[in-house]
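Loading example: each entry is read as two labelled lines plus one structure line.
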Amino acid sequence: MDERLWRVDVARREAHRAPVPESWHRLGGRGLIARILLDEVPATCDPLGPHNKLIWAPGLIVGHMVSSCDRISVGAKSPLTGGVKESNAGGTTGLQMVSLGIKALLLEGDLPAEGWSVLIVTRDGLRFESGDDLIGLGAYAAAERLRGRYGDKVALSLIGPAGEMALTAAGILNLDKDRVPSRINARGGMGAVMGVRRLKAIVVDGAGGEKPPLTDAALFKAGQKLYTQEVLAHPQSAIYRDYGTAGLAMMTYGFGALPTRGFSSGNFEGIDRISGEALRDRILARGGEGDTSHACMPGCVIRSSNCFAAVDGKMIVSPLEYETIGLVGSNLGIDDLDEIGRLNWEINDLGLDSIDTGAALGVAAQAGLMAFGDPAGAHALLDEIRRGTPLGRVLGCGAAVTGKVLGIRRVPVVKGQAMPAYDPRAIKGTGVTYATSPQGADHTCGLTIRAKVDHLDPKVQADLSRTAQINMAGYDTLGACIFGGFGFAKAPGAIRDMINGRYGWGVGEDFLQVLGFETLKLEQAFNRAAGFTPSDDRIPEWMTQEPLPPHNSVFDVSEADLDRVAGWS
Amino acid sequence: MDERLWRVDVARREAHRAPVPESWHRLGGRGLIARILLDEVPATCDPLGPHNKLIWAPGLIVGHMVSSCDRISVGAKSPLTGGVKESNAGGTTGLQMVSLGIKALLLEGDLPAEGWSVLIVTRDGLRFESGDDLIGLGAYAAAERLRGRYGDKVALSLIGPAGEMALTAAGILNLDKDRVPSRINARGGMGAVMGVRRLKAIVVDGAGGEKPPLTDAALFKAGQKLYTQEVLAHPQSAIYRDYGTAGLAMMTYGFGALPTRGFSSGNFEGIDRISGEALRDRILARGGEGDTSHACMPGCVIRSSNCFAAVDGKMIVSPLEYETIGLVGSNLGIDDLDEIGRLNWEINDLGLDSIDTGAALGVAAQAGLMAFGDPAGAHALLDEIRRGTPLGRVLGCGAAVTGKVLGIRRVPVVKGQAMPAYDPRAIKGTGVTYATSPQGADHTCGLTIRAKVDHLDPKVQADLSRTAQINMAGYDTLGACIFGGFGFAKAPGAIRDMINGRYGWGVGEDFLQVLGFETLKLEQAFNRAAGFTPSDDRIPEWMTQEPLPPHNSVFDVSEADLDRVAGWS
């Protein structure tokens, strides 16, 4: 099918398909979102007002079930950061959108005054149905009802109660290959931008759709094969297959960077009970619905995801990822994986970002609203969110607002967005990424933990972060998972071949970097137009002063380095 | 006494007097605060962290009981706006500080970890005593206890429970000439900056102090006389004497700019029950402790303040000002002056800014947390603040945070600070001031309501606001009340003569503008260093779209005009 922009006006319940502007053709995913925001969204607009647009954009390689390469990007001006935002997820939404010829789907126009909608996207076009009966339902129940109504083969993007309430830590959930709404465009409040347009869900019914055409199928397949071989051969892929991202817990602990009790230490005494090894042992011992290795997207050969079941064999949550273990586990002083898993399910069901929510609860614990190490206290706070109480709304707005309201200064955020589970005082290159990424604090924008450097040395971090940020912006534009990088790094020609095989553009081996560089420039331009300055590209003051045990290090990468990485100098 | 800087480290309970740097000599009040912030406070620092400084600075003419000219400025980097902040008040603090030779008093250094202090400032120096017994007391009770302890002649600057909780709409209260803590450095959260240093009060004991020396006493007196004559002769002075600022209610109503039910209309059907005439009639009819004309500072000949008593003759609150009537009255749909007065007393006792608090309650009413027109509902919300509940903390952080948490888009703020009682869609020159003042939305930075222009015409407002902003920055640096301008406008030579008579500087008739221009430049420089851009100098998006009855006007002064006034172009 021809690639089209699908433009949707929820207030008028109108939608149409339009041609793709020339300058948007060679972008997808994160890069395309930045381009659209720059071209169509006033940078200073109210993110929860009518001038913002919420954009779904599959990456450039999406559509052929290349392993780890079918991600869906969702973006808008962020109500959490006030800047450019792209958040990508696995699952089946990207694949089905591409099969219908969707280059990008845009929600735009006035905010509806009343009534909730569901948007159904099919080969024949778009239509609206009422979503009123779904309001108040958690994400899992809403997804189940939507599957009952629209069939088991559709893809879904939906919001939970947090998105309905326009809470700025709300995300958008997509179905994984087993139809669980667990693949989340979690970061930056995209669920709130969907909520103010009173759209509970998009149903993508790819029936009758087609794989996107290949200009040179042989070339594409050759690139795909090379890449897949390298992914499979990479030792790290096996580790992720066995331990999932949870394997990172022991690594960050070793670096003294595991967020513990409100980012007050980099070591947690309960590490052995929350590590990837502990998780794997528990899953294997229990059997039942548990699975140590699970693919979030069809065709993925890494399968870093998992299904975590209780002693009775029933699923607690799928997946349980390292960042959640860090923010909801050690950061809250909780060392029981079952409890962490149950909190994770609850956060997913609310439709929230587990990173910003975990960080917010850590701030609340500092303020005495729950005790560190008390899962019941954490559940009680999540229940406040579900009930939409004032405290619940505060927490659902994320860690930055929670700190402001509760008068807590020790808040781990950049540009209003909470830090993932790598304390920047002990893995300083990732701190540079947190500080300077146009997206706000986000490990997926340039994690440096695997680099062979002294992570405590402030002098060697800037270029490391810069390179990682360019590569990640490239992968996010291609639609590739962060772990696809294990393969692409060994086989840069694979990207060239797949892109040329699909589009015939004649790009070179450096296409990843070309895309990444362009994407970052576009994002920086949007943020500058929105009013960002070098003062926004900083780690919070308290982290430059308060030493982090066990290394007793502070974040001390120079501001000159930060300004250089962020493109100010 | 020689003018000195009094530097105070609360954490170490140390203080000392230091010489005044040469470049600070010719500034006072607001201008001096901007200069000190630029010189000593990192612009990007955490406003509630150790690098911020809280500064008391009397204006340049303070000390001789010139009518309306003994105001005390308090400033810091604002935790509400993130930018430069000066908030001035009447009362006796400025006068007594000057009599002790205080050019400026700075709170600086680390934040104390525990224990509350009272700082006592006398002719002999500074000392600390415990303030622990005062914690949790409302401002009225705390002031009474402090007067009991330190005598009836001292001046006080103190915080209420809101400041103790570091709520960002908290102010600092000073005693008026009748020793009521009703003269408030209200705006921008200065009370929170005092609260994080765990300082409940400053006691200024001017015993043994002296009036500041005059270089040419005859010249000073001549200037003072000329000014006082012009103030007394101005017809507006008589109106303020009789009706207080409440006289403005009918005027803004007439212009269709009276904030009504969450800034949804410029006309309020209850105007006749909340006007200056209604207030005067009620005060006169009741007698008792009521007084239609009251001086907030010794020596004031305008006496625009008032004492508002109930039917039993007992004081409800003193004063009841127009901005409170607008924000807590019509903005909340409340048309009973007694109820407005009782809410005002409560807000004062909490130590909050009545403008930001009234605006926050208006946002809460939009969210359904109280009904418009329900004083009991408003009291219940203020009680939440007193109890420090999560909702109370949200409200006490002001309208901007309240809107963010409650998901309300229609929030009347600029730079995070709430608008006073002049809707910028109907008095657009004041809207230009709100948008472009380095202080955030603040009528005292350049009110244009008395200019003989079409207040709806977007084309004629920029220069009007600019001139008013320069003049007001000058008055705030001299220590003169906004109403002193009635006299100075007719007798610009009076400023020249008083300054030359006091300091011998040989300034010209344009000294007011010289001071104002310099002050604004310093403030703009601080804000730029803090990360402000033209995008911060804007009226909220919704006010550029939602027409305001009865004129159905939107705020439509061009961004080019705003950028010019703000010094960007």
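The interface with chain A takes residues 43-46, 48-49, 51, 165-168, 369, 389-391, 393-394, 397, 401, 404-407, 409, 529-536, 538, 540-542 of chain B (CB under 8 Å).
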